[in-house]
């Protein structure tokens, strides 16, 4: 959805043309795969680490700041861009080689960039927060008026509601904050998709050779539950204690184009884990084409098959736009750079924050474990059902480190125990295969190990901090605001979250 969309109204003819173009784009992908027209066909791609980090904006009182236009003007850096909500911005980190100590240099560059952006934002009395879900957001902040000014966001909002035909319902039962705390429930409706904007994430990109794409995607799917359990940082929304990683159910519900009747018929949701392991990237593009109607049917007259016949690499604008409105937790990406096509896996399950080193550690763990699984003697996904992987995601998001996940040859296991016993070693093997230095491997994997040993993620710390404040007599609103102020202080100090005290 990063593409600007000028057209505001669509006809039936637009939809027919768009469907044709997406279908032709899918045919073009199949032909390019068969003809070896991708950059990395038959050769290992240079490992590149690329990421997008979504950020929240707050004022001096820790309220959501509806000020992204003002803040972006102050930052004046093209790496920072608008996002759906006026309380969001995003930083795009240019891909860098994923070898030797380059990950540490990337960490330093990201920290420098964020510090500079915070300094400039603070001159407007606004501040940046890396957190999975801003705890001071309330229902009032989901009003349509707070959608960012770029017309594409309002258009997306209108198209989703046109498909749905009724207000969006958010209905999530949380987990108790402690033994003597009741289960809390968020049940609300909204006339905008802004609850989606509450879900601020870390998105990781990995370029892969076409023949390896299926293995990397399957591997990413298989560890999604472990990822969210180890990195949970989104426990509160609208004053309510929800899941450890509440982004997962909130995003699923906030972008659901299906009324109840279509859900009952089994129509697939646009926020989708998927339904099967795949054999080729073509499987995913074909599913997107077959199952999901267009939200933004902006079509051109350029036939991608004609482009191939003329010896050119097609841009596949319609396929890419359509792909961007099917919100898979691990999404296939087709891109063309300098006239050469390549494929990427985009991992979307992780929350932002809490600190830069936590962010880099989450990334290193993901890249390392995925590479380790791909190079294992027997694929993990051949030993577990796809439904087990999907259930792991829901369980890990809901219960965090207390979740019970299914793992082949282990059975039911907590994510911290699984990580300490198996996945840290696997991640180290995978990172070493990329060429990441021992110094960098030790730095980032020790952070993941620390969370498992101390049993503290960003979500755990936030929940403990709110309980402590409420036990001291504060209201929920006061506790959330005070917790967030402490969070921001510790975020700037930069020590990993497993070392944070209350």
TrEMBL record:
This protein's UniProt keywords: Ligase
Superkingdom in the source lineage: Bacteria
Signal peptide: none
Protein's UniProt keywords contain Ligase: yes
A Pfam family that the UniProt record links to this protein: GCS2
Catalytic activity: L-cysteine + L-glutamate + ATP = gamma-L-glutamyl-L-cysteine + ADP + phosphate + H(+)
GO molecular function: ligase activity
Protein name: Glutamate-cysteine ligase family protein
Biological source species: Gordonia sesuvii
Organism ancestry: Bacteria, Bacillati, Actinomycetota, Actinomycetes, Mycobacteriales
